[in-house]
Amino acid sequence: MEALRTAAAIFYGVASGAVISAAVFAFISAIGLVTRLAQKTRTEAKIIWYESAIMAGGIFGAGLNLFEFSLNASPFLGGAALVLWGLAAGVFYGCLAMSIAEVLDVIPILARRARIKYGLRVIVVTIACGKMTGALLYFFVVNT
Q1: 144 residues of the chain, pLDDT tens digit each
Q2: At a CB cut-off of 8 Å and minimum separation 6, what does 17 contact?
Q3: Three-state secondary-structure class, residue 71
Q4: Which SS3 state, helix, strand or coil, does residue 67 take?
Q5: Phi, psi of 41 (to 5 degrees)
Q6: Are 28 and 97 in contact, with CB atoms under 8 Å apart?
Q7: What is the CA radius of gyration of the chain?
Q8: DSSP element (H, E) containing 76
Q9: Taking a C-beta distance cutoff of 8 angstroms, is the pair 36, 102 a contact?
Q10: Which backbone phi and psi does 68 adopt, to 5 degrees?
């Protein structure tokens, strides 16, 4: 009976993960993140690399969340890996946020309704800096 319960839990976990990852990748496709990045960088011919990198990152991240492990590395190497990981995650979330904003046309609508003619770039950068500051405060002050 215990083996059946374990098999059901494994099936449920794999099926749930498959559904959630499919939804995330469908969302990324629906907002056009990959195609927009390829257009902006003029690398449409290498779009398969973008898609492969996103899939590999999703699989790698899921693997890191699934399995616990520790590395006996020097503090310098661990710090460098943490900075690299944070930079990659920040770039991904920044692209995702700007892609959502572009698809929804939130910023032009806000500018029209608030009758903003100059300084729109400053407003966008200020919003991004505020988001970054809030995240840093959460992780270094609140989460300790």
Answers
A1: 888 889 888 888 888 877 777 777 777 777 777 787 788 888 888 888 888 888 888 788 777 777 877 777 788 888 888 888 888 888 878 877 777 766 666 667 777 777 777 877 787 788 888 888 888 888 888 766
A2: 62
A3: coil
A4: coil
A5: -95, 0
A6: no
A7: 20
A8: helix 75-104
A9: yes
A10: -90, 135
For 56, the token pair is 């590999």
Query: Rounded CA gap, 4 and 11, in Å?
Result: 10
Tell me the two tokens of residue 9: 């839990």
- Token pair 């200020």: residue: 126
Q: Which residues of 48-79 are buried (b: 16+ CB within 10 A; e: fewer)?
A: eebeeebeeeeeeeeeeeeeeeeeeeeeeeee
- Beta carbons within 10 angstroms of residue 13's beta carbon: 11
Per the CB < 8 A criterion, the answer to whether 24 and 40 are in contact is no
